[in-house]
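dumping this here so i dont lose it
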């Protein structure tokens, strides 16, 4: 990732969890998967993320359970390191420095202290060629270890982990790449290569896509582009090999996996169906259909109790033995085209963008979890190539988050464009949005921009939409008295145009008193109260791409960029151009919580970032090549807790965080070093109880339990003289410790348990009698002692008065008085015997 002093670009939130094959722990309680620069540990029961293993500085490319310790896991990354973790406690145990980017990792129980990784070939720098090497991991107590003992095993391999597999517990290793399969035998130190033709007789593509090895027999299963599965046997002798073919998938087989005992073979592809083949009875197969999206990976837990599938919509499905879906872990859905841009829900502070076809997804960046999907189109999506269906292309929130506006469109061949403008109101009971108004054909052409009046104290909500038909329209919410009994609805309040030019962008000022609409090369400023054209602003030639009003102390400025690589700033008080600079701004946005503005500029195949204030000539922050390609969308998200950064270059991140989406649909953000250290420290404080799954409820209950224990300890320290609590009864102990299958009937146990809690009446009466006698004797002794003390103290007091002295004798405590009484009762006759002698 790109670094710039104290700030660097990182994957944070919304990362792909389907990038690599997930791993299930031996006890089937946890699921681990690569997610950006970290490894996430999920509970297979609650679907919650219980740990996030942070430490890598590059994309995590593989996760692997350590064969010699089922509580530890390896992770590899493009940062050139292999790290060993204790995933139950979230602790980094060791870091092995390889020195080269690592794209996948493999291991077998027979090769102790050795892992196999895929790295680029050192000699080949121009072509993308990879090799499989064995790495001897040094057994040293140091946490940071140099692992330079590398030995090549296979060359010209694929970086995809699904193309490499161990067979028979590590006796041999199989790899596929393109049209060639290579099997390496460790004892013989020899490899055999098998090739296929590019096309079969019926025209199918024979390219290898994935591989799996039988755990107990010499059988290798390979998947192919044409949907076929081949089972290879007798490959120990190259000339005598055979294979059989299985065919159910109509397209590419993306993943294969044998069950731990080798009785079944699992396969998945674009059909969203998990297929379970009976080994040696391939005619018998079971199906689990309608999993929601194309399957990218299939894996099985070590005990065979759980199956797991990764999907193209960034989802992981946990299945109980191919019978039913038990859990779904949904990540941020990343489609091919995010037409709505990146939005922030003012209520939940969730990131909102295109999700499943016809839906908007609400994704929590703080919890890194999908909250819910909102069905906008409300039509069943048909998975058929070439079929045009309704798509959500625009969305906008008002300042309070109560209203949501969406635009959906469909363009069919030889048919007019279908447009729908929908306005949704937030329902407090369902905690979701409910459709309020639908406007069919709000414009005669595609809608280019849409925005709400963002004034917090605005009495009426106003929505403005601009279209290629040369008009912009203002929509307002009508009062309930002038509408039907269903409540208020939205209607068009004004239609504006300017000399037949096409409006491409629009925005409201922070206080809602001005509306700016960009008509190709002209910026027009309107009054929303009277819809009067106030002024037009000139600029250098070029169609306007972006318009943004300044915030807070910079609210008098209006900034815009055009397709002629110019960024202009106008002063609205003087209606003149304040300054302009030559910049190819592809995206311009403003932070609503500060005066800061961000400009993404595309140059030489990468995107640069400039953060600035409109009234200052020097930018607050600038960074070259934050990512390759163009930045398509970006948004400032408010922070829950303000950062206290002292560095001048990172103060613009104190109130808000900047997220941006690349043309490769990668969601990235900027992070400070202090923020990452804080995240690392917080992750180390989380420790999982071995018997309880870490959930939000458990965290709350555990905190309450710790507070309760702390209070009990403080109370016990204050009342140390309190009598100890009674021990548990024999009946309760026997009831809890006796095995359930030998216990008597519940009715008998209930009566026995109730009797054990009763106290005998005779015993209590005798105890009370003895207590009363002791109290009476102590009272008599106290009375006699008081008489003696008074007789002794009176002459002493008289003598003191004679001497004119005041009595300053200290008062005795009850314990000291009790000790004096005990000493007085002792028999001192033995002293007289000593004196007589």
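and the seq i came up w/
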């Amino acid at each position: 990732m790109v670094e710039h002093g104290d700030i660097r670009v990182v994957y944070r939130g919304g990362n792909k969890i389907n990038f690599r094959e997930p791993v299930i722990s031996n006890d089937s309680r946890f699921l681990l998967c690569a997610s950006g620069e970290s490894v996430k540990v999920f509970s297979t029961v609650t679907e919650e993320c219980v740990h996030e293993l942070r430490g890598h500085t590059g994309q995590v490319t593989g996760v692997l359970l350590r064969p010699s310790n089922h509580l530890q896991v390896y992770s590899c990354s493009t940062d050139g390191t292999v790290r060993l973790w204790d995933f139950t406690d979230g602790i980094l145990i060791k870091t092995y420095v390889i020195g080269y980017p690592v794209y996948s990792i493999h291991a077998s129980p027979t090769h102790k202290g050795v892992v196999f990784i895929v790295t680029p070939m050192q000699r080949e720098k121009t072509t993308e060629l990879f090799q499989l090497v064995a790495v001897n991991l040094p057994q040293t107590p140091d946490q940071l270890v140099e692992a330079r003992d590398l030995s090549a095993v296979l060359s010209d391999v694929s970086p995809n982990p699904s193309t490499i597999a161990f067979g028979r517990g590590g006796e041999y290793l199989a790899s596929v790449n393109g049209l060639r399969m290579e099997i390496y035998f460790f004892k013989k130190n020899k490899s055999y290569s098998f090739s296929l033709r590019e096309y079969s007789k019926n025209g199918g593509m024979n390219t290898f896509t994935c591989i799996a090895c039988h755990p107990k027999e010499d059988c290798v299963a390979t998947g192919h582009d044409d949907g076929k599965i081949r089972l290879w046997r007798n490959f120990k002798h190259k000339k005598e090999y055979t294979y059989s073919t299985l065919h159910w998938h109509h397209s590419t087989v993306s993943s294969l996996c044998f069950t731990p005992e080798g009785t079944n073979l699992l396969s998945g592809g674009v059909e969203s169906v998990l297929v379970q083949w009976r080994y040696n009875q391939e005619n018998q197969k079971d199906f689990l259909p309608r999993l929601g999206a194309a399957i990218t990976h299939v894996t099985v837990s070590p005990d065979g109790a759980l199956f797991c599938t990764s999907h193209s919509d960034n989802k992981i499905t946990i299945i109980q033995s191919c019978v039913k879906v038990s859990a779904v872990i949904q990540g941020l859905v990343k489609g091919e085209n995010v037409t709505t841009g990146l939005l922030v829900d003012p209520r939940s502070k969730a990131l909102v963008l295109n999700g499943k076809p016809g839906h908007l997804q609400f994704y929590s960046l703080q919890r890194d979890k999908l909250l819910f999907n909102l069905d906008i189109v409300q039509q069943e999506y048909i998975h058929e190539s070439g079929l045009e269906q309704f798509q959500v292309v625009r969305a906008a929130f008002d300042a309070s988050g109560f209203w949501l506006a969406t635009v959906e469109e469909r363009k069919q061949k030889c048919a007019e464009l279908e447009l729908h403008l929908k306005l949704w109101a937030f329902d407090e009971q369902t905690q979701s949005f409910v459709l309020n108004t639908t406007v069919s054909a709000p414009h005669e052409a595609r809608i280019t921009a849409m925005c709400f009046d963002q004034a917090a104290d605005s009495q009426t909500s106003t929505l403005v939409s601009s279209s290629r038909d040369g008009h912009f329209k203002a929509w307002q919410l009508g009062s309930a008295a002038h509408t039907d009994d269903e409540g208020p609805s939205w209607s068009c309040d004004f239609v504006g145009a300017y000399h037949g030019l096409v409006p491409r962008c629009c925005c409201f000022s922070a206080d809602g008193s001005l509306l700016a609409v960009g008509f190709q090369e002209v910026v027009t400023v309107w009054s929303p109260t009277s819809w009067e054209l106030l002024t037009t602003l000139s600029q250098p030639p070029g169609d306007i791409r972006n318009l943004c009003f300044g915030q807070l102390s910079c609210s008098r400025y209006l900034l815009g960029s055009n397709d002629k690589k110019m960024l202009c700033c106008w002063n609205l008080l003087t209606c003149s151009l304040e300054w302009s600079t030559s910049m190819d701004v592809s995206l311009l946005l403003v932070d609503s919580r500060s005066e800061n503005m961000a400009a993404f500029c595309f140059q030489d195949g990468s995107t640069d970032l400039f953060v600035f204030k409109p009234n200052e000539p020097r930018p607050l922050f600038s960074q070259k090549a934050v990512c390759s390609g163009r930045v398509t969308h970006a948004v400032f998200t408010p922070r829950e807790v303000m950062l206290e950064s002292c560095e001048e270059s990172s103060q613009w991140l104190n109130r808000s965080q900047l997220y941006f989406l690349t043309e490769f649909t990668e969601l990235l953000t900027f992070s400070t070093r202090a923020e990452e250290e804080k995240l690392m420290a917080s992750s180390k404080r989380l420790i999982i109880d071995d018997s309880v799954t870490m959930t939000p409820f458990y965290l709350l209950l555990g905190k309450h339990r710790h507070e309760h224990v702390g209070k009990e300890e403080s109370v016990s320290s204050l009342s140390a003289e309190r009598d100890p609590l009674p021990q548990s009864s024999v009946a309760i102990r026997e009831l809890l410790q006796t095995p359930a299958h030998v216990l008597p009937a519940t009715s008998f146990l209930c009566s026995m348990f109730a009797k054990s809690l009763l106290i005998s009446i005779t015993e209590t009466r005798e105890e009370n009698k003895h207590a009363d006698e002791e109290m009476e004797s102590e009272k008599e002794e106290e009375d006699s002692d008081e008489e003696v003390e008074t007789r002794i103290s009176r002459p002493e007091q008289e003598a003191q008065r004679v001497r004119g002295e005041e009595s300053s004798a200290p008062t005795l405590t009850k314990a000291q008085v009790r000790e004096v009484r005990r000493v007085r009762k002792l028999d001192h006759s033995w002293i007289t015997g000593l004196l007589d002698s």
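The longest strand covers residues 418-427.
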